[in-house]
Amino acid sequence: MSPKTLDRNAVKAGRVYEADLYGWVEDQVALLKAGEVGSIDASHITQELEHLGRSEFNKLVGALRVLLLHLLKWDYQPERRSRSWVMTIDTQRERIAYELEDSPSLKPRLQEALQKAYAYGLRDAQRETGLLLSVFPDICPYEWQDVTQRPVHLDDNPS
Question: Nearest Cα to 72, choosing from 25, 35, 123?
């Protein structure tokens, strides 16, 4: 729909945020493209932008969580190391690098993300390994450099 043919009444009466989020987004984009800033649903757009920011942080925490889980398993169950663990560690490191490249404003929150992810990764490591929680450090034992760059390879497959 071109800006000149935008039917503001159809957009405003069309789709409601609570009833059809995707349709509502399409309508808001059309209004913005048409320069109809006064007709946008600013309150809900603000909500969605805040949610988007939290979502970006949570994606970083999620990748760190899986990475820390596998580093803990790697360090505390060396007899069970596998190629799949190496691949998971590599994949999560790539995801973290991508998230930070895509959203560099997350960098000042790396320690917060690491602490949050460690709490979840620690719980997951205890569940997956069957080891007592007291076996693992209470606080993250890894520096950022270790988390993202420490070499991890099987003896027969050096990286």
Answer: 123
